[in-house]
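Design job #97: recover the sequence.
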């Protein structure tokens, strides 16, 4: 007779998956994708703890394995960007001058298109993303403390909260690409 699966580790697995997806999206942004290593490592840690809980409590591991894969991919892309920029930095001044020229052209084009400089736009996006993450974390904490809900109900609500956070994140990214 087959043992019944529990929801052990699912909360942390979902949190690790959401943070891992955010890290993977961040990792795909040229020039700043290396920053994805930080949330990628956080997602990896959450996922490993969730995996341990799932093993001990006979919980399902599908979401947790997905979170593990996404986290590792995000970290890998971030490391590749670091290696790339280190290689560019060691090549000397000619590449540096070309990069500076392209960066200046990018900044001028960005400011002309969006009406504000790139750093200001990234600061706005960062604040919005931080608020989304804080809201998600607050929701997850409230759900963890709610003793009236079963583990399945908590997992379902956590999944919905993560989905909502992801939609808000995608909307925020779309807002940054809309022209004036």
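Job complete. Output follows.
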């Amino acid at each position: 007779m087959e043992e019944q699966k529990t929801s052990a580790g699912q909360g942390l697995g979902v949190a690790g998956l959401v943070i891992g997806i955010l890290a993977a999206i961040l990792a795909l942004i040229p020039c700043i994708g290396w920053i994805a290593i930080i949330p990628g490592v956080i997602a990896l840690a959450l996922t490993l703890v969730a995996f341990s809980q799932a093993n001990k409590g006979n919980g399902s591991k599908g979401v947790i394995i997905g979170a593990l894969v996404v986290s590792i991919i995000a970290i890998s892309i971030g490391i590749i960007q670091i290696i790339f920029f280190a290689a560019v930095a060691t090549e000397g001044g000619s590449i540096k001058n070309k990069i500076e020229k392209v960066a200046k052209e990018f900044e001028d084009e960005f400011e002309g298109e969006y009406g504000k400089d790139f750093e200001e736009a990234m600061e706005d996006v960062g604040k919005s993303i931080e608020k989304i993450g804080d809201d998600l974390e607050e929701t997850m904490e409230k759900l963890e403390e709610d003793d009236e809900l079963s583990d399945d109900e908590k997992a379902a609500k956590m999944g919905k909260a993560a989905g909502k956070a992801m939609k808000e994140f995608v909307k925020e990214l779309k807002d940054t690409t809309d022209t004036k």
